[in-house]
Amino acid sequence: MTSPSRDPSTAKTLLRPTSGVIDGAIHRYPLRVYYEDTDAGGVVYHANYIRWFERARSDLLEVLGIDQRAALDSGEGLYTVAELAIRYLSPARLGDIVIVETAARDVGRVRCTLHQVAWRDGEKLAEATVKVGFISPEGRPRRQPEAWQRAFDAVVASAVPGTAPDQPHRFAAPGKAPGTEGQE
């Protein structure tokens, strides 16, 4: 019998990290705060929120079936951050489970505006507005592939009125329905 770690057919499945999920128009990306994420004061170092937001955006593309590496290798281009504004509201600490939520706000032919929020147990930790542009391998603005724009448009179109990543997503305790925390 071959161990799963040595069997190439199962290794990719067993070792694949989560890319999060799309729920309506919001991509949710879970992560855990590790020692490496914290500063001397024991809270998450501010630059790590930007790193987490980048990971969530990259994994949103993965979930949408967008392969930036293949597009870059083929000479098509890739997304790049053109502008980022971030607000820090409350610190995360070692061991916390953080959910980064990402929602596309404005999808154009060349640009896309994304709103991202980091949550811990319903408490907003940080939020950012990120404007990305599609560029050629030479760094010039270029229209994003139509299939990519359609993928983003489909997510934006699935938005339920009144939902946004600025409202917390509550995870239910085992055996409880979402939104019933604290009710007996």
Automatic annotation (TrEMBL):
InterPro entries assigned: 4-hydroxybenzoyl-CoA_TE, HB-CoA_thioesterase_AS, HotDog_dom_sf, YbgC/YbaW
Highest taxon of the lineage: Bacteria
Molecular function GO terms recorded: fatty acyl-CoA hydrolase activity
Keywords associated with the record: Hydrolase
SUPFAM superfamilies: Thioesterase/thiol ester dehydrase-isomerase
Enzyme Commission number: 3.1.2.-
Claim: Signal is one of the keywords in the record: no
PROSITE patterns, A to Z: 4HBCOA_THIOESTERASE (PS01328)
Keyword Hydrolase found: yes
Renumbered residue ranges of the record's region Disordered: 161-184
Pfam families (alphabetical): 4HBT_2
Family label: Belongs to the 4-hydroxybenzoyl-CoA thioesterase family.
Protein known as: YbgC/FadM family acyl-CoA thioesterase
